[in-house]
UniProtKB/TrEMBL annotation:
Cell location: Cytoplasm; Nucleus
Biological source species: Coprinellus micaceus
Protein name, per record: N-alpha-acetyltransferase 40
Keywords: Acyltransferase, Cytoplasm, Nucleus, Transferase
One Pfam entry name: Acetyltransf_1
Length: 210
């Protein structure tokens, strides 16, 4: 089944949104008096230094875990995925302008839904447990909500138990597309989602969908 005409219209609007439009919408949860600043970027707005820092953080956090999983680790494949033209980033820098965390997401169609798919959520090890991950999730939710997406989706390795716990405590649950829904419990990953409230008439008017 496909998304409705209205959902497709919402997706088109989201895909066209500029980074500054997204920047205005997102609601940032305070991060325990940390001087962390968040900025929205598309792949072509990241700049070479941010690209190196993003891929470095991803490598530090995920290479080993992915190497041991069915997903594997290939630098070229991962770079293609991360720096895809439709990827959008929330990048978080500390007071010294070092990248401490980022999220990469895309607006996509999934079955009969339009979704904000969170491909990456990465916090530097020394900066974990301070609320940065939760703040990034809150920002993703406010963007998804403002653009009328049906839900936030993500894939997480079952072995990444800390992250599974983190997402579940933030309200994520197994998605209807998770392999276990079709009786396949052997996969080493889970597909999670968090449904977003339906857009109100006034938000649809703002997006010029009504
Ligand atoms: C998962 C990750 C993004 C969480 O980010 P974080 O900044 O450390 O998380 P926060 O400090 O925002 O914690 C948010 C909540 O989760 C809880 N939490 C954080 N780490 C936790 C852990 N290891 N176990 C249980 N709960 C945890 C916190 O207590 C907090 O709860 P609260 O809001 O009720 O106080 C971060 O640990 C990370 O980057 N991990 C490595 C990369 C990774 O695996 N990414 C996910 C790939 S799918």
């Amino acid at each position: 089944m496909n998304p409705s005409k209205e959902q497709v219209k919402l997706l088109k609007i989201a895909l066209k949104a500029t980074s500054s439009e997204l920047q205005e919408i997102r609601v940032s949860r305070s991060t325990q008096a940390l001087s962390v600043t968040y900025a929205m970027r598309k792949t072509n707005e990241l700049g070479a230094d941010n690209k190196v820092a993003v891929f470095g953080l991803l490598t530090n956090n995920m290479r080993e875990m992915l190497q041991e999983s069915s997903m594997g680790w290939s630098v070229s494949k991962k770079k293609r995925e991360v720096f895809h033209t439709r990827s959008r980033f929330i990048i978080a820098h500390d007071a010294q302008s070092s990248l401490v965390a980022f999220s990469m997401f895309r607006f996509e169609k999934e079955d009969q839904c339009v979704v904000l798919y969170c491909y990456e959520l990465q916090v530097e090890e020394a900066m974990r447990g301070l609320g940065i991950g939760r703040s990034l999730l809150t920002q993703l939710e406010s963007i998804g909500l403002a653009y009328g997406m049906d839900k936030i989706m993500l894939t997480v390795l079952k072995a990444n138990q800390k992250s599974v716990k983190f997402y579940k405590s933030a309200g994520f649950r197994l998605d209807s597309s998770d392999p276990s829904r079709f009786g396949d419990c052997r996969q080493d990953y889970e597909i999670l989602c968090k449904w977003l409230p339906r857009p109100t008439a006034s938000s649809l008017t703002r997006l010029e969908v009504a």
